[in-house]
Amino acid sequence: MASLFLKTPGPSQSLPKTHKTHFVLPQNLPLSWRSKYRAGPAAARIRCGLIEPDGGKLVELIVEEPQRDLKRRQALSLPQIKLSKIDIQWVHVLSEGWASPLKGFMRESEFLQTLHFNSLRLGDGSVVNMSVPIVLAIDDSNKNNIGDSSSVALVDDKDNPIAILNDIEIYKHNKEERTARTWGTTAPGLPYAEQAITHAGNWLIGGDLEVIEPIKYHDGLDRFRLSPAELRDEFTRRNADAVFAFQLRNPVHNGHALLMTDTRRRLLEMGYKNPVLLLHPLGGYTKADDVPLEWRMKQHEMVLEDGVLDPETTVVSIFPSPMHYAGPTEVQWHAKARINAGANFYIVGRDPAGMGHPLEKRDLYDADHGKKVLSMAPGLERLNILPFKVAAYDKTQNGMAFFDPSRPQDFLFISGTKMRALAKNKENPPDGFMCPGGWKVLVDYYDSLTPSENGRVPEPVPV
Amino acid sequence: MASLFLKTPGPSQSLPKTHKTHFVLPQNLPLSWRSKYRAGPAAARIRCGLIEPDGGKLVELIVEEPQRDLKRRQALSLPQIKLSKIDIQWVHVLSEGWASPLKGFMRESEFLQTLHFNSLRLGDGSVVNMSVPIVLAIDDSNKNNIGDSSSVALVDDKDNPIAILNDIEIYKHNKEERTARTWGTTAPGLPYAEQAITHAGNWLIGGDLEVIEPIKYHDGLDRFRLSPAELRDEFTRRNADAVFAFQLRNPVHNGHALLMTDTRRRLLEMGYKNPVLLLHPLGGYTKADDVPLEWRMKQHEMVLEDGVLDPETTVVSIFPSPMHYAGPTEVQWHAKARINAGANFYIVGRDPAGMGHPLEKRDLYDADHGKKVLSMAPGLERLNILPFKVAAYDKTQNGMAFFDPSRPQDFLFISGTKMRALAKNKENPPDGFMCPGGWKVLVDYYDSLTPSENGRVPEPVPV
């Protein structure tokens, strides 16, 4: 009955079947319960604990079950646009309201506001943050094919209809300007740009989405892809009075764990009774040298099994967005999306969503700009920004600890590059850097990359 | 007595001495009058007619006469930074409050907000527009020289102190990111970037300005450089109940005049009793192939002499800002600065602040984006945007008229390029395109460019 809101309950292909309960299981609350829950006085009390979604109402764009066949038939009669994997990830993001109040791919006015102001002004004059263009590119032949139609069907690579885009608007895709204003550079070699912009069509098409059914990937991880509505229900069920989100796209080491535990301690000190951690690995497109999602999820599970984080106060779920690597611009999107999932605290790292400059020997962004821009961003005033405290390996304690500038000689900084190099070479990091089970997953991952004939480990394919 | 607020009353070197009264003359109101004027009940009534400056109070950073010698002496004891011509133009802009509420060159938080949000959030939570970075670049040796000093002296090319910058903050000048986010391209050949960024230092220095005396150029045009405060006084004196600003950096033709006259007519229809036009040519840095300021001012005067615009309801003054040619980003600055001068209506043209792409055969910006971005820009909600109606030469009327799409064959579009080509070749445009006196100025200007030995007219030097 309520199955339209359930995550695929099939067995995991990549995780052990005895997965831990702190990995959130799909909720089986029937729809009628939810409505009652939300309408009653208890709901009012509980809702006070969760931050409101942007625009006041969580956008949900998935067609209800009784209409799906009708929409599938309608899609067959419309001009078709084939979606890439990244396009489908954005349909997923939009369909569940991560980008609320966006109701579909951006029209030009939303695109321009995003590029110039990193925010959208709503009809009532209020402002919501929106820093990353969520757009769909089409080419000349698509455009000709659409002609005067006001709606188009969006289909996957096997021509299965995924969604209908209504009241469409087609406008120019100035790739150079989009890239310059989003990344602050137009240097060739930006992973997302190479993947999704450089070879994309010269037009963008915006409109209102009707997504025919929930987006699934059938990779054994769908049940961990909770929507903002499902996360809000989970936080409500746990009586969370604060939710702090931790975005990550890398393996978790004990420094991260220390930070998350310390954050909860600080929130308790602030007077919150039950702060809940949303440990929220990014699940969409990542660049080739990042560790793929399935291996990261295995690694996260081992770390959690190790008991470093408390299952009672930790929700692990997958954030379906693709990764831009657009630093201070993108970190706003990462934060804003988590507001829509109910988080009112956001932990921001050093150089969030940063990477090396594609051409020059330096980081693309100033390591402090992400934190600074986030703290000043329009539409994020309601979100509490928690700057990442720097953790490093403390040789006097044989474990990760917050860096103490009075005794720098005691600390060892292990960068992501260093960590990957160790795992590739099957070497061990110092004891206490990461739990042994988590480390083994990393070593296994690099082991799984069959060396090519010249003996070099090939670049892994992005998920 | 009130001389500190007077414009240089010296004779014009480049304009006929019998300049028309619709060229605004400096006001001789003593300071004490102004205060009384502003404090009394009449002032309250009159101020209702003029839009408030951004931040509620017009910033004025010029040191009062009694302190000037003291400040000059203080400047001698401080580390010195040499200003370029463009830097001095920005000091001018800042000193008179065109960029209110900015009190000096941007610190990093203002710079980042400008790049990412085109706006600044003030202490009270309100938002003002600020789209173009107003920054001062220094190099490594400047930075070393400053050491731990919290103030620096800004000096001209003859080491005369211009200003003191206090409570300084020095931060990285990421030229690529600044350019990408301001222009939406990093293509080499952007005039402002080549002039003021590419070869500038790798650091920016922000702080609070104390400008030792009003900035003067001694080019015979200083008396037309009215400050926002002086313009506000002038509009008040004329009992303006609406002020509509027209930014220009090109010769005025009869299509412009038609638009300005028509705008006044529309404002009268809206119920305003005395709408006043601020005809506001840009006076700072322009690219080499633009017509220099002194020739434009001569041309404007001839056009006004011709009686196309009513002197009673027209104020001609020079806007001291340098030109970025940054399209939709810069048009916001052009509009915002005019709010500070009292304008509550802004006429936006087709492709404002636009230019050709430096490398590709296309316009750098979509011609409609300026208008669209301006209408959505944060902090400009109080400003009424008046889109430029397209005027062209109507062959059936032998004059400029608003384009009528029902009879396109009757209209001739004369582009700026075409206009310049005609003037260079001493050919005449069709009768009624521009008054003969104005046209003669243009022809004289191109005539004044001595052909070089190979017979080609050299590129003029920017003012």
Automatic annotation (TrEMBL), chains A, B:
The keyword rRNA processing does not apply. Residues 223-444 form the Sulphate adenylyltransferase catalytic domain. The keyword Iron-sulfur does not apply. CDD domains: ATPS (cd00517). One of its GO terms (biological process) is sulfate assimilation. Pfam families: ATP-sulfurylase, PUA_2. Residues 51-213 form the ATP-sulfurylase PUA-like domain. It is found in: Plastid, Chloroplast. Keywords: ATP-binding, Chloroplast, Nucleotide-binding, Nucleotidyltransferase, Plastid, Transferase, Transit peptide. Gene3D superfamilies: HUPs, Sulfate adenylyltransferase. SUPFAM superfamilies: Nucleotidylyl transferase, PUA domain-like. Belongs to the sulfate adenylyltransferase family. This is sulfate adenylyltransferase.
